[in-house]
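Q: For a teaching session next week I want to show students how multiple molecules come together into a single three-dimensional assembly. I've collected the sequence lines for a complex. Could you give me the predicted structure tokens for the whole thing so I can convert them for display?
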Amino acid sequence: MKVAAAAACVALAIAGASAQTAAPKTVWGEPDISGVWKVPAPVGARANRDTFNLAQLDRLYKPEARKAVSPQDDPSLHCRPSAFPRAAILGGSIQITQAPGMAYVFTEAFPTYRIIPTDGKRRLTPDFLIPYFMGNSAAHWEGDTLVVDVISFSGEGWLASRDDKPTAKSPGVWPTSDQMKVTERWRRVNADTLEYQARVDDPGVLTGPWETPRITLKRQNVDRIEEAICIEKEGASAYLERYGLKN
Amino acid sequence: MSMKRPVIAAVLVCASSLVAIAQIRPDNRGDKDASIFGVDWSKGEAPLVGESREAAAKRLLGYTPDPDKYPIRRTPWDKKPYFGGVFWPSDVELARAPVPLETVYKKGPEIQARRESIALATWTNGFSRPMFNCVPSRIVEGNTAGPISTQVVHGPGLMAVFPEAGNYRLIRIDSAPRNTARKPSYMGDALAHWEADTLVVETTNFKDGMWLGGPAGNRPPQTASDALRVVERWSIPDGRMLEYRVTVYDDKMLTGPWTGPTLRMGRMRNDAVIEAQPCFEDPVLVKMEEEYQAKQKEKAQ
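A: Of course. Below is the structure for the complete assembly, covering every listed component.
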């Protein structure tokens, strides 16, 4: 009897632990990716450590695409947002909320937002797609993974920072073009972890597709992201420092 | 006083209106003409782009809400009214403010000095309106600042509001205590609760010097202090609109609370979206400002 009771206790404990860590669902049945999320440690290529697959990206750039670009053109130095995937690793939190068939992503750094229909239907006809910093998203669920196709970028964002240099020869400039397409995969691994991965196709500046590694974002124990408005007159460098953002 | 001030204000308002039209988009149904201009309000369809502010005001003010015919959509998580959608325009007054805001301002040199000298709100040159430098000023001023449209996102425990060409606000909907660690901010800390089907949003912890209203004539801007508390009441009379009223409290600047007009906003078609347009300083306007400042300096010498 004692053995059976012990086994039952172990089973209950395992079930309890599993319930605690399982990826939750929304009331209406979609995987729940809502919450405030942040990368736990800086992601990029600094001090001979490349955690964002930037050495590969470096090799993919068409030389002419970087020719007239200076590190000082980094949009972060001018209060301009960069799209995801870079927006996921800037160091500020992101907040996601959901309603049936929709997901909304808010960024703390260079505050902006994305509206992501999760029913697979893009909301705009090509005639109404206006190039935009964050692009235009349409998504569908593949099991627990939200797969987002993003098009219609303005080509003003960068894929990494001017300080990201995976090799000594890297120029530290990471421009994009308005031909960029991004395919993202968002997955809630467990209660406290969200995984993000992206593939970037940009024939305007790259010779082939670039894939980010899987980025882990951790749930933050706060109800909302902070307001972090970047005011150009006050200086973007001061802004980055004030909010502890990666620059 | 500079003659340029009204000109600049007009430029900003016009630019803002153009952005509004550009940002609101129809969906993929294919029938572009119908989706833009041919929507028949009498058949229960919400309008998209192409409707003038005057036409929208006439439509909204001449309409009696009918929740039986146009039911209020409710959320699957708490069965409360669902506020998600795009609403246009945001300045149609169903009922006027009982008294003008200016009448509740405290008098005296100290208050006057605060209104004229707050760093982000210097007002004499027309270039220092918060919006000019991409400083958010939307929570009170923005709600009556012109014919803009507003997107509302509503999820479990959270509502987000994006006035077009402005910054988003995140409103927490629950009864948990306020997080006192949050820093004072332009948009403040917004917490909401339900009173029956009305969402009551109470916002505090603002930065000092937010604008409640702009300057006019010899009147300095209607600035607030860090004691500002804003209470908004959001409701949905039927599935085609929302109504909004704001009351402002500021013991340091006002003699008592001020209640704004009751605003009625029409819900646009469910698939309308406003995409974020981050605010950047316009190099042309910045150059104009520099020239103006240089002239002022010359005059002073």
